[in-house]
Amino acid sequence: MEKLINDFSFGLFIWQVVIFVGLIFLLKKFAWKPILDAVNDREEGIKNALLSAENAKKEMQNLQASNERILQEARLERDTLLKEAREIKEKMIADAKEEAQTQGLRMIEQAKASIESEKNAAMAELKSHVSSLSLDIAEKLLKDELSNKDAQMKLVEKMLGDVKLN
Amino acid sequence: MVISTRTLRFTIAVFIAGLPLFSFANPVSDTTKVQTEVSHAVADTTHAVAEASHEAHAEPTDAKSKIKAFINHHLLDSHDFVFSANEETGEHYGFSLPIILWDGGLQVFSSSKFNHGESVAENNGNYYVLHHEKIYKTDAAGTLKEGHGGHPENVKPLDLSITKSVVGILGIALLMFLLFTSLGKSFAKNGGISKGPGRIFEPLVLFVRDEIAIPNIGEKKYKKYMSYLLTIFFFILFLNILGLTPLGFNITGNIAITASLAILTYLITTLTANKNYWGHIFWMPGVPTPMKFILAPIELLGTFIKPFSLMIRLYANILAGHVVLMSIIALMFIFKSWIGSTLSFGLAFALSLLEILVAFLQAYIFTMLSALYFGMGNEEHHHDEAHH
């Protein structure tokens, strides 16, 4: 302990305190402040850059996901459209077929009806014709009966032959 | 060639542990012996002063005591800057430093007047003599009165000389200023990235901030202590490293230096401490009232012991490192055989590497403990929370 006290040099102590305190203040102003500020700024910058990179990555992922979704939706829509078109086509064909069938049937029906009516008319005409013809024959026969028996017979035969020809 | 590394390490460790014991067993008693011899010589003859001072570092004839004297001389501060000295011709290679004394007015003269402690310096009619690197006022003949414990009783004027240590401190201060201002400027010049020689120390700056200041003081308050912590860390580190160079500085191994650093830490702790810190010292919460009266003086004493331990730790570590390293280097000259000298060269080399580690470690410990004390002075209520 005595050696320690004896070794203690007061002058050196004063010099050391003066130089050291001066050094602290000088370095504080000219070195530590700019160094620490710069380092802090740099660290902030790195932190921000990392954060924005992370954000950009997230955004990109979101974008990709929405792209995927849109694509999926478009695909679904296309599928439904195609399906609808196919259905419409089939329905149209079926409708057309049905229409044609009913139309044909109706036409056949009409044709049949008209044939029937024509036939009836023809039959009626024929009937009237036959009746008038029979009346004519009967008239003529009656006239011939009145004049000549032979001639009447011949006439009837001739008439009959004519009818046959008819 | 297969030698287990453990055995090898053990052998080396034992050797290192054992060497100082027989080469440097009791330096204190020996120095006093030299000093008493010196004082006797002083009392006897008129120009004994020169001889006496000379005796302190050059006169002993056998190698061992010469080495001891040399080491003791090295551990002290010095008033001139000597790189090496030729024992036979008495020539010293180096340069003189200014002596500044306050002795009824400022006395400024060159240390060359002392002639390396061999002659009496005269300035403005006052006579001074250099004895064991202390300046004493004396008469024209240079007599020193013997005091108790081997120290002369003569008046010691206030010695404000630019000693070797002051030169070292100034050099390191200048180096630090240039290095760190250039580092500070390089950030702005180079777009936020440091450049130049200061760049090597940027990780250390960050280390002090992230590993010493923030964990010990806290995120909120660490900023106001950063200047002090950074300055003290690099100051101690650079001075420790400077002490390992062959220039022969022993600055951080000087009690005046470590005392000033410890006192600054104490002052900063005390002046920036909050209410809570004082509360814990004088009125310890959470203990019975009688205990508070017992604890208060203990706690108060603790605040002085903390910086005191800082002072002694750094001083003792660096001093011991210098003593051991110099002793082992000196062994080379004592052994004077190729095997012994080679071995002690290897040891000195290994120990130098260890000393570099110690240089960093002591700078770290000093800064770290300072930060810890600042953190204690700024602690917020913790104990009170436990009571709620």
UniProtKB/TrEMBL annotation, chain A:
State its location(s). Answer: Cell membrane; Endomembrane system
**How does this protein lie in the membrane?**
Single-pass membrane protein
Q: Which residues cross the membrane?
A: 12-32
Q: Name one GO molecular function term.
A: proton-transporting ATP synthase activity, rotational mechanism
Where does the record place a coiled coil? 46-125
Q: Pfam families annotated for this entry? A: ATP-synt_B
Q: Which domain of life is it from?
A: Bacteria
Q: Cite the entry's keywords alphabetically.
A: ATP synthesis, Cell membrane, CF(0), Coiled coil, Hydrogen ion transport, Ion transport, Membrane, Transmembrane, Transmembrane helix, Transport
Q: Which InterPro entries match?
A: ATP_synth_B-like_membr_sf, ATP_synth_b/b'su_bac/chlpt, ATP_synth_F0_bsu_bac, ATP_synthase_B_chain
Q: What is the protein's major site of localization?
A: membrane
Which NCBIfam families does this entry report, sorted A to Z? ATP_synt_b (TIGR01144), PRK14471.1 (NF011041)
How it assembles, according to the record, is: F-type ATPases have 2 components, F(1) - the catalytic core - and F(0) - the membrane proton channel. F(1) has five subunits: alpha(3), beta(3), gamma(1), delta(1), epsilon(1). F(0) has three main subunits: a(1), b(2) and c(10-14). The alpha and beta chains form an alternating ring which encloses part of the gamma chain. F(1) is attached to F(0) by a central stalk formed by the gamma and epsilon chains, while a peripheral stalk is formed by the delta and b chains. F-type ATPases have 2 components, F(1) - the catalytic core - and F(0) - the membrane proton channel. F(1) has five subunits: alpha(3), beta(3), gamma(1), delta(1), epsilon(1). F(0) has four main subunits: a(1), b(2) and c(10-14). The alpha and beta chains form an alternating ring which encloses part of the gamma chain. F(1) is attached to F(0) by a central stalk formed by the gamma and epsilon chains, while a peripheral stalk is formed by the delta and b chains.
Functional summary from the UniProt entry: Component of the F(0) channel, it forms part of the peripheral stalk, linking F(1) to F(0). The b'-subunit is a diverged and duplicated form of b found in plants and photosynthetic bacteria.
HAMAP family annotated for this entry?
ATP_synth_b_bprime
Q: Can you name this protein?
A: ATP synthase subunit b
Gene name per UniProt: atpF
Automatic annotation (TrEMBL), chain B:
Q: Which Gene3D superfamilies match?
A: ATP synthase, F0 complex, subunit A (1.20.120.220)
Name the record gives this protein: ATP synthase subunit a
Q: Where in the cell is it found?
A: Cell membrane; Membrane
Spell out the InterPro entries in the cross-references: ATP_synth_F0_asu, ATP_synth_F0_asu_bact/mt, F0_ATP_A_sf
Its record classes its membrane topology as: Multi-pass membrane protein
Transmembrane ranges?
166-184, 228-249, 255-274, 314-335, 347-374
Annotated PANTHER family = ATP SYNTHASE SUBUNIT A (PTHR11410)
Tell me the organism. Answer: Flavobacterium humi
Functional description taken from the UniProt entry? Key component of the proton channel; it plays a direct role in the translocation of protons across the membrane.
Please name one Pfam family that this protein belongs to.
ATP-synt_A
Q: Which domain of life is it from?
A: Bacteria
Under the heading HAMAP family, the entry gives: ATP_synth_a_bact (MF_01393)
Classify the main location.
membrane
Answer yes or no on keyword Transmembrane helix. Answer: yes
Annotated signal sequence range: 1-25
Q: What is the lineage of its organism?
A: Bacteria, Pseudomonadati, Bacteroidota, Flavobacteriia, Flavobacteriales
Q: Which key words are in the record?
A: ATP synthesis, Cell membrane, CF(0), Hydrogen ion transport, Ion transport, Membrane, Signal, Transmembrane, Transmembrane helix, Transport
Q: Name one GO cellular component term.
A: plasma membrane
Q: Name one GO molecular function term.
A: proton-transporting ATP synthase activity, rotational mechanism
Can you tell me which family this protein belongs to?
Belongs to the ATPase A chain family.
Gene designation per UniProt:
atpB
